[in-house]
Design a protein that fits this description.
heterodimer, A: alpha/beta, Rossmann fold, 14 strands, elongated, B: mainly alpha, two-stranded antiparallel ribbon, globular
Chain lengths: ~400, ~325
């Protein structure tokens, strides 16, 4: 209720600021181009938020060193959304109304992203680039002003199903997910994509997010004797799952397939060698692209973190949109981006016109061990899956 | 259900129960003696886990490193607890408004959490075990992680130590007397202030010990605070405020039931602590049962001793 009122109030307030006219939507020549960046510096995903900020800062620095965009120097304004929708909306509203910001980016919280997307849509017309997994953020169609820079839960679930379906000898599949909306969305997409495969999903368990003891759940899954386990357990919960799963034989007794982010694997004293993993956070080290090289040259340590690459892409989307539109009018920038292609850390990728999702590749491979020098060296062989085939536009 | 599955789930439940019990025992001791509901218990648990990562980073994941962590971390955190009790908490005991104690421990919780972020950063940390404690033992077909065995054994040892300390030592006698009548104890010449400091330090140390034990089990992150505090409160409330026996029984019941509930449904398993608490509290309300707290046991014993028809006073 409070959130709804906040969004409604903000929309009413924003409608009076007169930014929808094409003339007033253009920045004055030479004026700084402000980008508001929502970072979840506190809250459930604070672990990676400093990386996001560093990646965004690198993109801004790179652009400014080249003279800015259309003669405008970029200015990054970082705000803490605390991974909380009401706080994110309040920060976004303040940036747009008081700071006269027309370009927003960031947040690692789908709930914040969804709320802010509603705020920045009609009639305020503010471009918002973010990387979140909730597909409903982008379900309103091509009229929205938000652009997604990572594969959604729907794409992730479809990709996982494609992998499992490629192993028809695995008849009994168990699913282990996070007990919040992301886990439910990936599992739903996975189940849907598994229909007609002849393989049976024998169980789906939602593990407590941030839980400290997964042993009962692992024991339960092993007692069902699945041929394969698909896990969408992420970040620190992956560490807990791996640490407690190793002595119980989770990775020896089943064909385990799940999210294995570089940062997570790299922090494990004993990674699950031999399991199949995937990640969609674009650590630059694996890509031989101009942006990847630039990011590494600017800051190798930051470049290895996947979140930094995501934030770098979010800022790049804004910059390239402005360049394509030859305008700082958000509506023109939106129209220039949708349906086209953009250069990212991962290379040139397509932006789907129907929902503004960027078709980022998913990195997959077998975990061979941690590498403190090179991100994704833990995947061997590394495969980059083109996710365009999973879109239904 | 096969025998191996039964053993595995029972074992997992016992491991879960004893980790719950450490934090709950610290919380309970402080409540039972000082009458203070320590909302900083979750932060203390988290601090114990983070300090463990530092000790292991310096000394290595060896037997020596882990022995030092198991002893030094709870002692160091307990010492900090004693300082906080003397400097801050002591001033609130005679306040009529208990909200001040609540706000103070809540503020301490935020301070500890903030300090952890400043010192250790926001990224999670991990520590590994000595190789001897990695892996598992196969018992009748069930894989029993060695480290869980250690946790259970240590949990039993600490439980015995708490019982011995409370019921077989002079300090324990004074502690139990302080629960009954602080003023009377002071009038008899006992330094109650010092006793309170020691009890608070021991309670904090137990919470930190829980953090040490959980550190190698998963990722050490800022999530630990909430994942520890809420279940610990549930254990304390279910077992009866101030009752160590009740806390142990509640922790065992919740841990084992949660483990077996996981066989059917993970969501049901997560609800188990709340279900157990609701059932116990409901039963108490319906049957007038006061739980296993020291006060209720004393009252019950008093009723049993009193001849039929006699009245108190």
């Amino acid at each position: 209720m409070t959130l709804a009122l906040a969004v409604l109030g903000s929309a009413v307030a924003l409608s009076g600021c007169g930014s929808s006219g094409s003339g007033s939507a253009e920045l004055a020549p030479g004026a700084p181009l402000k980008i508001g960046y929502l970072a979840s510096l506190t809250g459930f995903c604070s672990t990676f938020s400093q990386e996001y900020v560093k990646g965004a800062e690198l993109a801004v620095r790179r652009t400014n060193e080249r003279g800015g965009v259309l003669g405008h120097k970029l200015q990054l304004i970082v705000r803490d959304d605390r991974a909380t929708p009401t706080v994110g909306v309040a920060q976004a509203r303040d940036l747009v109304l008081s700071g006269h910001v027309k370009f927003l980016a960031g947040t690692c919280s789908s709930a914040v992203g969804k709320s802010v997307e509603q705020l920045v849509a009609n009639p305020s017309h503010v471009i918002y680039t973010l990387g979140v997994s909730d597909p409903t953020v982008f379900s309103a169609g091509p009229e929205i002003y938000a652009f997604n820079t990572i594969p959604t839960a729907q794409i992730e679930g479809r990709n996982a199903a494609a992998y499992i379906r490629a192993h028809p000898q695995w008849k009994r599949i168990a699913v282990m997910s996070e007990d919040y909306s992301y886990g439910y969305q990936v599992t739903a997409a996975f189940r849907q994509a598994m229909r007609g495969s002849g393989q049976t999903i024998i169980s789906q368990d939602y593990l407590p997010s941030g839980g400290s003891d997964f042993t009962p759940y692992i024991d339960k899954v092993l007692a069902e004797h699945p041929d394969a386990v698909y896990s969408t357990v992420i970040t620190e919960d992956t560490v807990t799952l791996v640490k407690q799963g190793l002595p119980l034989g989770l990775f020896d007794k089943t064909n385990f397939f799940g999210i294995m982010d570089y940062a997570t694997i790299d922090s494990m004293p004993q990674p699950p060698v031999g399991v199949e993993g995937y990640t969609f956070y674009p650590s630059s080290s694996i890509y031989h692209t101009p942006f990847a090289r630039e990011l590494e040259a600017l800051s190798p340590a930051v470049a290895n973190g996947g979140a930094a690459g995501d934030a770098f892409n979010q800022i790049q989307l804004i910059v390239q949109g402005i360049e394509k539109a030859r305008s700082t009018d958000p509506t023109k920038v939106r129209d220039a981006l949708a349906g086209g292609t953009v250069q990212t850390v991962q290379g040139r990728v397509e932006i789907h016109k129907c929902n503004h999702e960027v078709a980022m590749p998913i990195a997959m491979g077998t975990v061979v061990g941690p590498s403190h020098a090179l991100a994704f060296a833990h995947f061997e062989p590394l495969r980059l899956v083109d996710t365009s085939k999973y879109f239904e536009c | 259900m096969s025998l191996a599955t039964f053993i595995g789930q029972l074992f997992a439940g016992l491991g879960l129960a004893f980790v719950l019990f450490f934090t709950a025992a610290g919380l309970n001791l402080v409540w039972g003696v000082l009458g203070v509901m320590n909302f900083a218990a979750g932060s203390v648990y988290m601090l114990g886990a983070y300090l463990t990562t530092s000790v292991i980073a310096r000394l290595g994941a060896t037997a020596l490193g882990w022995t030092v962590a198991l002893i030094a971390v709870p002692v160091a955190v307990a010492a900090l607890g004693a300082v906080a009790e003397v400097a801050l908490l002591r001033r609130t005991y005679r306040e009529e408004d208990e909200n001040r104690q609540f706000m103070l421990t809540l503020a301490l919780s935020y301070l500890i959490a903030g300090a952890i972020v400043l010192v250790f950063g926001t990224h999670f940390r991990t520590v590994s075990l000595p190789s001897a404690l990695s892996g598992s033992w196969n018992v009748l077909g069930a894989e029993l992680p060695r480290y869980t065995v250690v946790t259970i054994v240590l949990g039993l040892a600490v439980t015995v130590a708490i019982w011995f300390g409370l019921y077989r030592t002079r300090a324990g006698l004074l502690t139990r007397a302080a629960v009954d009548d602080r003023e009377m104890l002071g009038a008899l010449g006992v330094n109650v202030d010092r006793l309170y400091s020691v009890v608070f330090a021991v309670g904090i140390g137990l919470g930190a010990l829980g953090g040490v034990l959980i550190a190698p089990q998963g990722a050490v992150s800022s999530n630990l605070e909430t994942t520890a505090l809420v279940p610990a409160f549930i254990v304390v409330v279910t077992g009866g405020l101030g009752s160590m026996t009740g806390a142990l029984v509640a922790a065992l019941a919740i841990g084992i039931l949660e483990s077996f509930a996981a066989l059917h449904d993970a969501t049901l398993a997560q609800l188990t602590p709340y279900v157990v608490m609701s059932v116990v509290l409901g039963a108490r309300a319906l049957m007038g049962w006061r739980g296993l707290s020291p006060a209720s046991l004393r009252a019950r014993r008093g009723r049993e001793r009193a001849p039929a028809g006699s009245t108190a006073g």
